[in-house]
Amino acid sequence: MNAQQKEAELEALDNAIYNFKFTIDSMFKPVDLYVKSDEVKTSNILHDLIYIAEYKSKIRECQIRSQLPKSKRRSFCNYVTDQIGAKKKSYTQKYPPIPQYPNEQQVREPEIYQPIWEQSKKYQEEGRRLYKEWKRQMSSIQ
């Protein structure tokens, strides 16, 4: 491999990392907005949103990684994994999940918590869909 090719591969990796910095910020924007809302202490929707942001970021990572030279894919994957892990950790440390108990939905005020439960279910379904999409994209890269 010549020096010009190595330089082109490093430049491609640098561009991918640069682009991903904006991607991860935009994917976690709904999480940031939710954290600023008053609802953050009333439900675990925050953790559903983190899950969605994580898999949207991972899907974007697959798209970017598939365009990189094979020699730089592992480096990019490691970078992305570290970035997503750090982002998730910062939220989960500051806002730990609220324990859920059996029949909690029936115990709480239904008119207040029913919309929250419905929203949480919707986000969980979206998270599962994104997880399947990520798995599908991962298998096409490898």
Q: What's the overall geometry? A: elongated
Please, how many domains? 1
Can you count the beta strands? 0
Radius of gyration: 19 Å
Tally the helices.
6
Euclidean distance between termini CA atoms: 23 Å
- The overall average pLDDT, rounded, is 85
Helix content: over 70%
Uncertain segments of ≥5 residues (pLDDT<50)?
none
> What is the percentage of strand-forming residues?
under 5%
Order of helices and strands: HHHHHH
Query: Structural class given helices, strands, pairing?
Result: mainly alpha
The major β-sheet equals: none
Would you write up a description of this structure?
- It is a single chain.
- By secondary structure, this protein is mainly alpha-helical.
- The chain has one domain.
- The chain contains six helices and no strands.
- α2 packs antiparallel against α3, α3 (45-66) runs antiparallel to α4 (70-94) and α3 packs parallel to α6.
- The protein is elongated, with a radius of gyration of 19 Å.
Features:
single chain; 142 residues; mainly alpha; elongated
Q: What is this entry, summarized?
A:
With 142 residues, this protein is mainly alpha-helical. Helices cover 82% and strands 0% of the residues.
List the helices and strands and how they pair.
Blueprint: H1 3-27, H2 29-36, H3 45-66, H4 70-94, H5 104-107, H6 110-141
